[in-house]
Design a protein that fits this description.
Structural class: mainly beta
EC number: 3.2.1.15
Helix content: 10-25%
Protein name: endo-polygalacturonase
Number of strands: 30
Subcellular location: Secreted, Cell wall
CATH superfamily of the largest domain: Single-stranded right-handed beta-helix, Pectin lyase-like
Pfam family, one: Glyco_hydro_28
Number of helices: 6
Enzyme class: hydrolase
CATH topology of the largest domain: Pectate Lyase C-like
Strand content: 35-45%
Bound molecules: 2-acetamido-2-deoxy-beta-D-glucopyranose
Length: about 475
């Protein structure tokens, strides 16, 4: 591989533009010669410098987990433009091969930038983009990537994947571009929309799988065939400033779905879909969400867990600073009867709600099935759940609902500074088999939660002292 240190200096203003342009030109020629292909054409020069500018703020960010540092200085980067690999970008031509070829090039080239240029629509079939890649890959999406819209012609080898990124270590996805699953025909074919249709799984628009040290910044993900964006079997993922949207009536279009993943941060993002804005499921822990707008949708959910007698474990989840508007649930934990495992150490705080149907809800009788579900003796155990500074309007009378199993009660629930009310002032709290404490202002009052359990006192002490350490390792 070639080494291209364009400029050691961090201050690009020290170099006259003219000289910079010459250096860049030489760089392009060298690249073209070395690779035997025109990776970069003339207008890319402009794009490259724009990309550098986009990057500028990265250096100000505190280091997070073990993510690699992103270079802020000019140079050292190799642009791989999908257009140079024959992508047409007219929304009708199949650009899959161009994307795959560009991926191969970018993935095998250290410090490369895979560019999807602005102003065009790239039709891409279901594709698995696989790592591991050479270091510091950046995927810069400025244009729109669209999925073929006909379920009948979908590649049967990828029933659950549209754009899947597998096995990456240290990659950045960013840009002002759009990933559009063109899901409308999938939604119409769903058994939720038309009871005569079979219940079949549909693809997820964007999937990050078996990866670590991934940042996703600024992208829009919309109209997912089913889920919009899934993080699966991954570690150290940071998602910032993304927008996820699908119509309110689109079935099962979860916004961001986190499964079997650890150390995930989701920040400053806006999600409105036909299902959960965020869903966190099995084998996930240390999940932090901050600055989330949710609506429409089914709220911020942990679960569902425990379906078909399975084991579900979710621990250490924090939601801080969120606004939910017009959602069918607010802060929800949902588990099926007959499951096993646990949900533990969860904190929801500084949440405002407007016209939310079930603002605070634990539902251990969750049953998203055409058939009704029987009560069973086992259940996913729920404990150490803190709700603090939660206020706003509830659309249902039971503004707070703790529906817990008789055999596996919910315990150590903490309410602190809660103010939820219906428009007509009749909000109430429902508890079944739930224990915990409340302190500070609590409306509607939650006497049904009152616990004589001595362990609660211990818990209160823990919450006041070491809770930050306990529930959350690093502040956002
Ligand atoms: C990830 O990459 C490693 C190393 O090449 C390989 O052994 C492993 O099978 C890959 N895993 C997946 C899920 O692709
Ligand atoms: C439901 O699906 C069936 C079979 O696919 C179709 O014949 C019927 O027209 C659909 N109904 C509606 C209301 O779309
Ligand atoms: C949940 O995760 C655990 C641990 O990874 C695993 O053993 C179990 O099979 C998972 N359950 C489901 C339903 O996938
Ligand atoms: C399951 O148990 C709950 C709590 O005791 C009860 O409210 C509900 O009616 C039961 N459901 C069924 C299907 O028996
Ligand atoms: C809860 O709200 C109060 C008053 O707005 C604020 O002082 C406090 O810091 C908040 N608590 C947390 C944990 O953010
Ligand atoms: C528990 O009961 C005490 C005494 O009746 C009351 O002051 C307190 O507000 C209750 N806690 C909750 C969470 O309602």
């Amino acid at each position: 591989m070639i080494s291209l240190d364009l400029c050691e200096s961090r201050n690009t203003e020290e170099i006259p533009e003219e000289i910079m342009a010459k250096i860049l030109f030489l760089f392009f020629v060298l690249l073209t010669v070395t690779h035997g292909i025109a990776l970069i054409n003339l207008s890319d020069e402009v794009i490259l410098s724009e990309l550098e500018d986009l990057d500028a703020e990265e250096g100000d960010e505190a280091e997070f987990f073990d993510l690699p540092k992103w270079e802020t200085h000019r140079g050292n980067k190799i642009l791989v433009n999908v257009d140079s690999f024959g992508a047409v970008g007219d929304g009708a031509s199949d650009d899959t091969k161009a994307f795959v070829d560009a991926w191969k090039q970018a993935c095998s080239t250290p410090k490369s930038v895979l560019l999807v240029p602005a102003g065009r629509f790239y039709l891409v079939n279901p594709t698995r983009f696989r790592g591991p890649c050479a270091g510091r890959l950046r995927v810069q999406i400025e244009g729109t990537i669209i999925a073929p819209d006909e379920p009948k012609n979908w590649d049967p080898k990828n029933p659950r994947i549209w754009l899947g990124f597998f096995n990456l270590t240290g990659a950045l996805f960013q840009g002002g571009g759009v990933i559009d699953g063109s899901g409308s025909k999938w939604w119409a074919a769903s058994c939720k929309k038309n009871k005569t249709n079979p219940c079949k799984a549909a693809p997820t628009a964007l999937t990050i799988y078996a990866s670590s040290g991934i940042k996703v910044k600024g992208l829009t993900i919309q109209n997912g065939q089913q889920m919009n964006f899934a993080i699966s079997r991954s570690d150290s993922i940071r998602i910032t400033g993304v927008k996820v949207s699908a119509p309110e009536d689109s079935p099962n279009t979860d916004g961001i779905h986190i499964t079997e993943s650890t150390n995930v941060v989701l920040q400053n993002s806006r999600i409105g879909t036909g299902d959960d804005c965020v869903s966190i499921v099995n084998a996930s822990s240390n999940i932090k969400m901050k600055g989330i707008y949710c609506g429409p949708g089914h709220g911020i959910s942990i679960g569902s867990l425990g379906k078909d007698n399975s084991v579900g474990i979710v621990t250490q989840v924090v939601l801080d600073n969120a606004f939910l508007r017009g959602t069918t649930n607010g802060l929800r934990i949902k588990t099926w009867q007959g499951g096993a495992g646990y949900v533990r150490a969860v904190r929801f705080q500084n949440v405002r709600m407007q016209d939310v149907s079930n603002p605070i809800i634990i539902d251990q009788f969750y049953c998203d099935s055409p058939k009704s579900c029987q009560n069973q003796t086992s259940a996913v155990e729920i404990s150490e759940i803190v709700y603090r500074n939660v206020s706003g309007t509830s659309k249902s009378q039971k503004a707070i609902k703790f529906a817990c199993s008789d055999n596996v009660p919910c315990s150590h629930i903490v309410l602190n500074n809660i103010n939820l009310e219906t428009r007509d002032g009749t909000a109430e709290v429902y508890c079944n088999s739930a224990t915990g404490i409340g302190y500070g202002y609590i409306h509607p009052s939650a006497e049904c939660l009152n616990s004589s359990d001595k362990k609660i006192e211990k818990m209160e002490a823990m919450l006041d002292e070491s809770k930050e350490e306990y529930l959350i390792h690093t502040e956002l």
